[in-house]
Amino acid sequence: MADALLTPEPLRARLAVPGRPSLLLAAAGLVALFVLLPLIALAAIAAEGSGDMWPHLIATVLPAALTQTGLLVLGVGLVTLAVAVPCAWLVATCSFPGRALLEWALLLPLAVPGYIVAFSYLEVLHPLGPVQEALRALLGIASPRDFRLPDVRSTGGCILVLAAVLYPYVYLSARASFVLQSAAALEVARTLGASRWRAFFRIGLPLARPAIVAGLTLVLLETLGDIGASEFLGVRTLTVSIYSTWVNRSNLPGAAQIALVMLAIVLMLILAERAARRSRRFVASGSARPQAPKRLTGVAGLAATAFCAVPVTVGFLVPFVHLAVSAARRIAEVGFPERVVGEAATTATIAAVATVVALGFGLVVTLAQRLTSASLASGFARLASLGYAVPGTVLAVGLLSPLAGFDNMLDAAAREMLGISTGLLLSGSGAALVAALAIRFLAIPIGGIEAGFAKLSPHLDMAARSLGSSQPRTVRRIHLPLLRPALATAALLVFVDSMKELPATLLLRPLGLETLATHVYGEAARGTYEDGALAALVILLVGLGPVILLARMSASALRSSSDTIRGSSSSGR
């Protein structure tokens, strides 16, 4: 959209080059088809099931799975809102002890996948774990039978775990909205007798509602796609049902039918988010004066600090400290496990290849938008970005059939022409997993490169054309160097997300291949938590990189926007 605003249609038409851009547009269409292929195949696989399968699913599987999924999504959404929105308001509009630290520390739980937090709390909150043992010692109780906390293996426990790692999505978008809100609207409410909290609920919150809804939609989509935390904590969601139906019962059509139900829920969430944002359009003046932070002292300041520190502690500090202590203890006992080095190398290799593929596809799609005047290019970009909304389990089910069909076709041709068998080149190797990861995270490079192109004036292209530069040379000598920061950021985000991805990895990895994520999953399934602590700690430490980058970029963008608004306001006066 930003590119369309910056580049009027006549100018876009002049930038287009006959012949080559048509090939680029066709390539962008192939990328969009590649993303849609698993969804098309999913419907075909589901249709292969017998007519009696749907009644069986409706009677035995779907009621429990839908109920558990609905409770989990509702609970995570409510807890996330209750935590993220007040934290965002306090950080954006108030000054209190530790605010500068907490402003970016509240993003740290994004570095920790939900399954690792669940993995940690299964040990931390175990009846014989450190928390309950310390409480019993404090109360003078000797036996675990006489005192124990509620079991974390429950729907409530899963809600708290997922909310603890997903609330930053809402916090990030809500904080940006609160920072950029005009102080004048809130001051008018205060002069009319409204208290600070009443002004928040009647003015500040409605103005931030579109941003909050956008962040909440991401939280709900991530909750729907979770498999590790849900399975570890005994919650049988739709995602867990897909996995168990495929792997444990060897019923791929049944898994595809459950996946279709899940896909319908995802579609309803996306449509509901867009409808909510369409019905709530609030516009602030470009010269609006941002709010001056209110200083909180005494009890109020300490309460604000404590409130904002709790989610950081629960979502990041406790898992990090536990994993660090457990990993150090394990290394002291048995030495540094060599298998973790091999698994880290395997994980990094798969993530790196998926990153290269995703960046390549993202460049093709965004270059088609930049270099052609066809509105079809924007449609291809939106279709290619759909993968981020599709859970990893659904992608895995949809990818298996077309890749296996291609392998069988290639094997039959090789047998007939060469007398040799090629075996399962794609579905039996890491290629299927790389394809799933590239589709799942393709929206990241597309969004990042689009934002980078939005900052490049189309007159650069025209100047290069006037000097006789060909289109490929312009891309190589002008676009790519100027897009380097956007490409690097997108590559980092895709790489780390690929390293952390569990559902697609569990279902599509070749036999015998272990990644850090599947290592953690396997140790949790066996109950040998200390053996998986080091692998979990490596994933957590790798995830810190993009979170720190995101915190710096977010703070820089907000400071720049606030300075621009203040400058506009001063010049207006």
Short description:
This protein is 78% helix and 1% strand. By secondary structure, it is mainly alpha-helical.
Please describe the structure with a list of short key phrases separated by commas or semicolons.
573 residues, MetI-like fold, 25 helices, 2 strands, 1% strand, globular, disordered N terminus, disordered C terminus
Question: What does this protein structure show overall?
Answer:
This protein has 573 residues and is an all-alpha fold. It folds into 2 domains: 1-48 and 316-444 and 490-555, Orthogonal Bundle (MetI-like fold), CATH 1.10.3720; 49-284 and 296-304, Orthogonal Bundle (MetI-like fold). It has helices at residues 2-6, 9-15, 20-48, 53-93, 99-105, 114-124, 130-139, 155-179, 183-191, 196-225, 228-232, 238-248, 252-278, 298-334, 338-371, 376-384, 392-418, 431-440, 443-454, 458-466, 471-482, 484-500, 503-508, 516-526, 529-572; strands spanning 94-95, 294-295. Strands 1-2 form a two-stranded parallel sheet. Helix 3 crosses helix 15 (338-371), helix 4 (53-93) crosses helix 8 (155-179) and helix 17 packs antiparallel against helix 18. The protein is globular and about 80 Å long.
